[in-house]
Amino acid sequence: MKIVSRNEELLRDALSRIPQSSSSTSLSSCNKLIRFEDISAAAFKIQCGVQKTPCMYSRLSKQYGMDIYLKKEFLQYTGSVKERGVLYLLTSLPQDQQRKGVIVASDSNFSMAVAYHASELRIPVFVIMSTSTSPARVKMCREYGAMVISYGTTAKDSQTHARRLAQENGYLYLEEEDSAVYLSGLGTVGLEVYEQVPKLDAVIFPAGGHCGLLAGSAAALKHLNPHISVIGVESESFPVLQQSLKAGHPIEDQACSNHHFYGDVSGLCFGSNSLQLTGKLVDKVVAVREEDVLISMLRLLEYERATVDAEGAIGLAALVAGKLPELKGKRVAVVICSGNLELHLLQQCIARALTLDNRVCRFSLVLSDCPGDISKLLEILAREEARLLDIKQERMFVTSELFTVEVTCTMETRDKIHTAQLRNALLERYPTAAWTER
Questions:
Q1: Which of 47, 86, 195, 271 is the most buried (most CB within 10 A)?
Q2: Element (H, E) at 285
Q3: Above pLDDT 90, what percent of the chain?
Q4: Are residues 353 and 376 in the same domain?
Q5: Residue range 395-431, pLDDT digits in tens
Q6: What is the CATH number of the domain that holds 132?
């Protein structure tokens, strides 16, 4: 949590509310601000304000050769695990600051969680969003109870305006960071997973720049059972955490921060506390491709009826991509941390994932423009049990013989084998058929 207000002591006041212990542990030698006792205190304090989400056995287990349990944090009220850290953070503030109010400046899951829980705690809350913010996000934030102000064309404009308002009015400016309070709240996920799944071998978390969930939960899990493997997953396009761990400090010059599709996973590495905890306690960090994330989103939608975003699906993507072969036959929990996929992205993601999964294909061929020729084509498609999604006919710009028509079909198939069968059947009847490669 970053603070910009007239009272710079507020962070230390919040931290002083966490019980301190004189006993030293391997964790405290890594980071003196967060211990297992801190996470336990957070779990007790937020238990009535956030959901104890289910961690359920998944039907995907047989497909990937291991016992997979999905921790469904996307079922939180605002669709994100960030609620845990935010609620503990807000309840730890001094009462005089709670009366004055808080202010945030982004359209992230963190801001949505602040908007909701501050309103529930009767703390005045202001959210500054740029004019380019999705109208649906603005509407949702207002419905949570926040005063939403549109300002500036970029996130930086909004942040500057929010800091100015904080200074002028005594609001507490909150920006997601890795304070002990926030990490302790996020670490309660690790506690719950340990309680819900006996004899765990590994737990997989989303990583990337904002690795507070990974770091805080690792602190809880490693205290309870040092033999549980804790694994982080980030995007190959934005290996922020791996680069930061290699450099030994947070990487600040990433030109690819805040990628729209990946959300917080692509953000800058936001603090040395999380980085130190990750380096000390996390067993492995792997990177996955965008294609694997999309297929992971498709698997969750089909098998779990869960509509999640890239941040929520990226943990499972490591299993989809075969990045963790050592987990075969093991009991593995995967944290599905976010379900805030914007509607305009949903259709694009599903369509692309179906293509990547070899379940949507497209071909073109030239037919004689005579009655019955297209019906013969449709008979072949019906015989092969492929579903016709779209068909287009082009007559004016065909470069072949006169009185011919170019037909382009988009088909849905069961899997890669079914697609190959369809292709062979068509090529047997139409040798010049051209297939569009994905």
A1: 86
A2: strand 284-288
A3: 73
A4: no
A5: 888 877 788 999 999 999 999 999 999 999 999 999 9
A6: 3.40.50.1100
Distance, CA of 185 to chain centre: 18
Strand-pair partners of 173: 103
392: domain CATH number?
3.30.70.260
Phi, psi of 122 (to 5 degrees): 60, 35
Q: How far apart are CA 403 and CA 275, in angstroms?
A: 67
In a shared domain, residues 280 and 241: yes
Listing DSSP states for 315-341 in one string gives: HHHHHHTT--GGGTTSEEEEEE-B---
Report in angstroms the alpha-carbon separations of 154 from 258, 277, 382. Answer: 12, 32, 52
Asked if residue 158 lies in contact with residue 130, where contact means CB atoms within 8 angstroms, the answer is: yes
Range of the domain at 274: 32-249+260-357
Token readout for 233 is: 């997953």
Phi, psi of 223 (to 5 degrees): -70, -40
- Our count of domains for the chain comes to 2
Q: Which of 325, 357, 389 is the last residue of a domain?
A: 357
Question: 192-206 pLDDT, tens per residue?
Answer: 999 999 999 999 999
